Each structure stands twice: as C-alpha cells, then as structure tokens.
C-alpha cells in the first residue's frame, strides 16, 4: 500500500486543552478513510495539521510524500479541503463562487458549472452565498473542494445538515471519486456513513487514536453488532448520554 498520508506524533495544545496528543496515522493511496470520535476528540485539529493548514506543536505529516508543514503551494493544488461556508467570498452567487475557486486552480468555467450540477445546485447558481440554505451551502463548499479534481480529498462532517436525498447523492459522488483512484478522508458522526463508505476508520478520543481498522474487523474484534457499538465501547459514550 503506497501511503497518501503518513502522520507521526502529531500534537496540538490550545491553552489548557491538549487537543491532539500524539497521533500516528497512515492512509493508503486510493483508500477511503474515516476519522470517528465524540465532540472535542481532536478530529478537526488532526485533519487541519495533516492538511498543512495548522502548525503542529510536535510531529509531522507527509502528504503524497511531501511534508505538509510549512505550507506548500504545489502540494495544496493536489489536495481538496472542504472549507466552512464562512470561507466563501462575500456576496458572490453560487456560480461565481465556484468559478472563482476554479480559476484559482486554472480550471475553466465549464468544469465549475458541471460540479455545480453534480451537487444539484444548478437551479441555485444565481443565488448569493448568504441566501443558500445550510445544506445548499454545504454542497457548494464540497463542490469547491472537488473542482480541481484533487488526488486527495479531506471532508469535515460533509453530510451534517443534509437531507436524506442529498446525503445519498453525496455518498454516490464520494464513491465515484474514490473509485477513480482518489484518496478520501472524512470525519463523521454517522456510523452508518462510516460503515458504508470507509475502507478503514480511526476511532479517536481525548486527542488520541484508540483503534484503527476496517469497520467489519473492528466489529468482529470487539465481538459487538455494529460500528456504533464499537464506537460506544471504545469511547465510553453509553455512560455520558
Ligand atoms: N482554535 C481553538 N482554540 C482553542 N481550543 C480549540 C480550538 N480548536 C479546537 N479547540 C479545542 O480542542 C479540542 C479538540 O477540538 P476539535 O475541533 O479538533 O475536535 P473534534 O473532534 O473535531 O470535535 P467535533 O466533533 O465537536 O467537531 C476541543 O476541546 C476544542 O474545544
């Protein structure tokens, strides 16, 4: 397995909070990888350090064989990161938004418009970003992350807030991208999503990786019925609810 991502000893502290506490991860090229964990487990911070968007206090991440920090423009062109809707350019329509992202990567308007169609936003192409619904803005941010056909895609809770139809459509899209040989890394709170999409998952809590493996193997290893049971068992969430 050629590694698309190798992270070693990643750490990040915010004041009193040790958000990430020594994370090692390896993701193979073409793999669909999920990062699971309760709120505050350190998933987003880990992803941001791997992406090269946040400087680790310690440790290193290599993407496609290259260190992701300090920031590396050539590398950033090869990866797609789903940014929060708040990162949109102000007052632009959905179409202008994605065309602007596309042009930053030297990608033409045709491809940008096609991506808008892929995420079902053609009808909203003329709508300003601040007038899109939460789910529509979410789909636009995903389209922007994919517009330059990146080799490696990072998505932070991509289906949160989407209606069931949009969620299934996004699953299909992510499967297609992955089948075309792209590596996909996502965080999710939906265990069915992780079970359906991911080749392997890492379960995190309190800044550490507790277990990594294919969902089915983790279920078998712990002798439980589902990935949700694995999650609850490892993170002790049944007592916190
Ligand atoms: N910029 C920041 N400044 C201070 N503390 C932060 C910052 N970002 C995250 N934290 C803290 O670090 C810890 C890990 O946060 P992180 O967002 O990485 O977790 P997460 O697993 O992605 O959580 P969630 O599932 O809720 O999105 C939390 O305790 C959070 O409050």
UniProtKB/TrEMBL annotation:
Membrane topology: Peripheral membrane protein
Ranges of residues in domain ABC transporter: 5-231
Keyword line: Antibiotic resistance, ATP-binding, Nucleotide-binding, Transport
Predominant localisation class: membrane
GO molecular function: ATP binding
Compartments (UniProt record): Cell membrane
Entry-linked InterPro entries: AAA+_ATPase (IPR003593), ABC_transporter-like_ATP-bd (IPR003439), ABC_transporter-like_CS (IPR017871), ABC_transporter_ATP-binding (IPR050763), P-loop_NTPase (IPR027417)
PROSITE patterns: ABC_TRANSPORTER_1, ABC_TRANSPORTER_2
Listed transmembrane segments: none
Family: Belongs to the ABC transporter superfamily.
PANTHER family (alphabetical): ABC TRANSPORTER ATP-BINDING PROTEIN, ABC TRANSPORTER ATP-BINDING PROTEIN NATA
Record's protein name: ABC transporter ATP-binding protein
């Amino acid at each position: 397995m050629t590694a698309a991502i190798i992270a070693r000893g990643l750490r990040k502290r915010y004041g009193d909070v040790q958000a990430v506490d020594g994370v090692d991860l390896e993701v193979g090229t073409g793999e669909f990888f999920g990062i699971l964990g309760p709120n505050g487990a350190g998933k987003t911070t880990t992803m941001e350090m791997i992406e090269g968007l946040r400087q680790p206090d310690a440790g290193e991440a290599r993407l496609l064989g290259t260190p992701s920090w300090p920031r590396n423009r050539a590398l950033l062109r090869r990866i797609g990161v789903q940014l929060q809707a708040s990162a949109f350019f102000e007052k632009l329509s959905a179409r202008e938004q994605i065309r602007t992202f596309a042009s930053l990567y030297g990608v033409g308007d045709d491809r940008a418009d096609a991506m808008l169609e892929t995420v079902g936003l053609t009808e909203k192409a003329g709508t300003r970003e601040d007038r899109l619904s939460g789910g529509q803005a979410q789909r636009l941010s995903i389209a922007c992350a994919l517009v330059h056909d990146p080799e490696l895609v990072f998505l932070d809770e991509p289906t949160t807030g989407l209606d069931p139809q949009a969620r299934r459509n996004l699953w299909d899209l992510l499967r297609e991208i992955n089948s075309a040989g792209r590596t996909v890394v996502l965080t999710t709170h939906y265990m069915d999503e992780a079970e359906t999409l991911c080749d392997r998952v890492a379960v995190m809590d309190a800044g550490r990786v507790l277990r990594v493996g294919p969902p089915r193997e983790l279920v078998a290893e712990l002798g439980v019925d589902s990935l949700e049971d694995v999650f609850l068992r490892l993170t002790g969430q049944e007592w916190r609810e």
